[in-house]
Design goal:
Layout (H helix, E strand, L loop, with lengths): L6 E5 L5 H13 L3 E3 L1 H4 L6 H11 L2 E6 L1 H5 L4 H13 L12 E2 L20 E2 L3 H20 L3 E3 L6 E14 L2 H7 L2 H21 L3 E6 L2 E6 L8 H18 L8 E14 L6 E4 L1 H12 L5 E3 L1 H6 L10 E2 L8 E2 L1
Parallel strand pairs: 1-2, 1-3, 3-4, 4-5, 10-12
Antiparallel strand pairs: 6-7, 7-9, 7-10, 8-9, 10-11, 13-14
């Protein structure tokens, strides 16, 4: 597959391989890139790793639904469906990504699928004619995505702006005011410099960008300049790794952090001179508010981040009254 950002991933159970191949051939006949594991995987490929990577990078995810999938409570295709549904939580609400298709007379209401699939328009693809029609629909969706131009360049050349879905991490040193009053300023500065260096290393190691340092706080962004498809997970792993790294370092072991993590849409602006992105928007503000509500040593996570990840243990959801919000936010 030559262009992951334009690729279509087809997910199916082995019993539906022929129907999935028919869909794949129709999409390719329409000039589309397709990830169809029987034709793409080669001997020696790390099979699971390759499939996860393609789900993270594909433009559209097409789950093939049938009586065969309904009959199976377990199967690798169910992991693929979960990964596809999880990735969709990171996207803007109006972005097309999940395109479920039914290849027989299975009723939509009875299909055993993730809830996220039910929020999308389904197609019934039972023969070559309907497969060609579906390929035409996919082409239109991808064409609209290109025409929408998420990147906006101002004619005066001052800035380049993009709307992106990212995950923002805010970290703050608990008790820093008291520390500043009781310690030598040079010692405090050396300690904070060490904290910044560790934070920068940890964030970069997990694919994020240290976007801002403000006093004893740092702000990191995951999904800018490069989106990975699992940026919410990367941010949470980085938050845990940051707490661990500070505790292990003799110079920073006395520091305690409170961390807020939130996922959503931002406007990312980059000036021609500076080169680096500056992100703004409600997502950033909520991440900062979550950090302010987090207990020392704790990580407070926004609802969209929590929905986008798996394999993490979370406490009971809290309803927080935060500045600038009429309604409480869940975390």
């Amino acid at each position: 597959m030559s262009e992951g950002s334009r690729a279509v991933f087809i997910s199916y159970t082995l019993q539906d391989a022929e129907a999935a191949r028919r869909v794949s051939e129709a999409l390719r006949a329409a000039g589309l890139e397709v990830w169809f594991d029987q034709s793409e995987l080669r001997g020696g490929d790390a099979w699971d790793t390759s499939i996860r990577k393609q789900i993270r990078e594909c433009a559209l995810f097409v789950p093939v639904i049938s009586a065969n999938t309904n009959a199976r409570s377990e199967g690798y295709f169910r992991l693929e469906w979960k990964l596809g549904a999880d990735r969709s939580h990171l996207m803007a609400d109006d972005q097309a990504f999940l395109l479920p298709i039914i290849i027989d007379d299975t009723a939509e209401a009875l299909a055993r699928v993730p809830d996220r699939f039910r929020e999308r328009q389904w197609s019934r693809v039972v023969d070559a004619v309907s497969a060609a029609g579906f390929a035409s629909r996919v082409n239109e969706i991808l064409a609209r995505a290109v025409a929408s131009h998420p990147k906006v360049e101002r004619r005066d050349g001052a800035k380049t702006e993009e709307r992106r879905v990212v995950t923002v991490l805010f970290s703050d040193v608990a008790g820093s005011t008291a520390m500043g009053e009781s310690s030598d300023p040079e010692d405090v500065r050396a300690l904070l410099d060490r904290y910044y260096a560790i934070a920068s290393r940890v964030v970069a190691a997990h694919g994020g960008t240290l976007e801002k340092v403000m006093g004893d706080s740092v702000m990191a962004v995951f999904g800018i300049p490069q989106a990975h498809g699992d940026d919410a997970e990367r941010a949470l792993v980085a938050a845990l790794a940051l707490l661990d790294a500070l505790a292990r370092d003799p110079q920073t072991a006395t520091l305690t952090l409170s961390i807020g993590v939130n996922t959503g849409e931002v406007v990312a602006a980059r000036s021609p001179d500076a080169g680096a992105f500056v992100v703004t928007g409600d997502t950033v503000n909520i991440a900062a508010r979550l950090q302010q509500h987090a207990d020392p040593g704790a990580i407070l996570v926004g609802e969209r981040t929590r929905r986008a990840v798996s394999g993490f243990g979370f406490g009971t959801v809290q309803e927080l009254a935060v500045k600038g919000k009429r309604e409480p936010i869940g975390a």
